[in-house]
UniProtKB/TrEMBL annotation:
It comes from Luteimonas padinae. It comes from the Bacteria. PANTHER family: INNER MEMBRANE PROTEIN YDCZ (PTHR34821). InterPro entries: EmrE-like, YdcZ. This is DMT family transporter. The chain crosses the membrane at residues 35-56, 68-90, 96-118, 130-147. Keywords: Membrane, Transmembrane, Transmembrane helix.
Length: 154
């Protein structure tokens, strides 16, 4: 796939995250909090992915066994924590600030994971990449504007 097209696709998918957070926050208000909303979100998402696998006739991979390291299952745990906490906090800080703060955390963690080659090839955090992270931080400060008082709740 063309790298520019791949990046454009990621930007397009990224536009869905604030909407997902806002929808889940409303769902949390209708249900019994953010963990229940995250559970329902993952349940619906699992049903969609299961249907996708069936329609695409995707063959099953190797059955899980002792050759799989224990940490291989943590992705679902991390995703559940992310969605539940995001659902809880997005009404408190707003969609734009929440996404910016999440992106800042992702950029900082990604630079470290790349630099040390955690679970992938090593990509050093040179001065241009660090400068980019600093610019992301500046953008977060400007978007989140912590010096402004928040609007009244709905």
């Amino acid at each position: 796939m063309n790298p520019w097209l791949a990046m454009l696709a990621i930007v397009a998918i990224g536009t869905l995250l604030p909407l997902q957070g806002l929808v889940n926050a409303r769902l949390a208000g209708a249900l019994h909090g953010p963990v229940m909303a995250a559970f329902v979100s993952f349940l619906v998402g699992s049903a969609v992915l299961g249907t996708w696998l069936l329609v695409a006739r995707t063959p099953w991979g190797a059955a899980p066994d002792a050759r799989f390291p224990a940490w291989i299952w943590i992705g679902g745990v991390l995703g559940a924590i992310y969605v539940a906490v995001f659902t809880l906090l997005i009404p408190r800080v707003g969609a734009a600030a929440a996404i910016c703060l999440a992106v800042l955390g992702q950029v900082m963690a990604s630079l470290l994971l790349d630099h040390f080659g955690v679970l992938q090839a090593q990509r050093p955090a040179d001065w241009t990449r660090v400068a980019g992270a600093v610019l992301v931080l500046l953008g977060v400060v400007l978007v989140a504007a912590p010096w402004k008082s928040p609007p009244p709740p709905l």
